[in-house]
Design brief:
The chain has 6 helices and 12 strands. The protein has 265 residues and is an alpha/beta fold. The longest helix has 33 residues.
Length: 265
């Protein structure tokens, strides 16, 4: 079968037409990427205008810092000054309240906790929870008592309002504004608490790493910190009262070992 020149030309034209894509096909192919591009541009513009007209708006620049609490163990003036230095002039949106609270707490150890909140549009509120003294402590070679909280933080010298707190003697250095062995206070307070329940009049407690020494009048008493404090003090109460009923003058009671050691005058 022969093909004429006209037929060849017609076939070429048809092939070319098949290679041409319809505008609708092209539109469908690029519709999704185009939409994504438009969305990205719109989002970028939204972020830009939000940053420029909201985030950087002077209306939301911190102007006021309100500090609530402090005064006894946290210097309120210093705390307020540092807080103002940290916050005033900054965009309220840029302030990380958890991180800022942690930084202030680390700088002012007299604060047991610090909470920060934002009062829009331009104020920061800082609440200080100060540490609470639970006992008095002095070194075995020292003359002065200091206030200490339950975590072993030394708050400062004793004022008259705290003179009735339990007294602890510590065999080590004591520095205001620092921590000492965190076992001292809970163990000593437990001893004093259980002694009170047992009707024992303890004048002071001296803390060592493995044992505590307390005084019942002139009687020295040794209790292991490695044993159950409640059981040890309960046993001490029964023994001490029994010895008093017998009219014996006891100079030392040692409950650190399996066998109780009693020394007489």
């Amino acid at each position: 079968m022969q093909t004429s020149g006209n037929d060849l030309l017609l076939r070429k034209i048809q092939k070319r037409r098949r290679g041409v894509k319809s505008p609708r096909v092209v539109a469908r192919k690029y519709r999704t990427p185009l939409r994504m591009l438009i969305a990205a541009v719109a989002l970028s513009l939204a972020v830009y205008f939000s940053y420029k007209y909201i985030y950087m708006n002077p209306k939301f620049s911190v102007k006021n810092v309100l500090v609530i609490g402090g005064g006894k163990f946290v210097n309120e003036e210093d705390f307020t000054n540092i807080s103002r230095q940290k916050f005033v002039g900054r965009s309220i949106f840029s302030i990380n309240i958890q991180e800022s609270a942690a930084n202030l707490k680390n700088n002012f150890l007299g604060a047991r906790n610090v909470e920060i909140s934002k009062d829009y549009p331009d104020s920061i509120v800082v609440k200080i929870e100060e540490r609470i003294p639970v006992a008095l402590i002095r070194s075995s070679e020292g003359k002065f008592y200091y206030l200490i909280d339950k975590e072993g933080y030394v708050l400062g010298e004793v004022s008259d309002e705290f003179m009735d707190l339990p007294k602890i003697i510590y065999d080590g250095d004591i520095r205001v504004g620092s921590f000492i062995n965190d076992k001292i206070v809970p163990v000593s307070i437990e001893i004093l608490s259980e002694a009170g329940k047992a009707g024992l009049d303890v004048s002071s407690v001296s803390f060592k790493e493995r044992y505590s020494k307390l005084y019942l009048g002139p009687t020295e008493v040794y209790i292991s910190n490695m044993k159950d404090i409640k059981q040890s003090v309960s046993a001490l109460g029964k023994l001490y009262k029994n010895l008093l009923l017998q009219g014996k003058l006891v100079t030392k009671i040692d409950l650190r070992y399996d066998k109780v050691i009693v020394s007489y005058e």
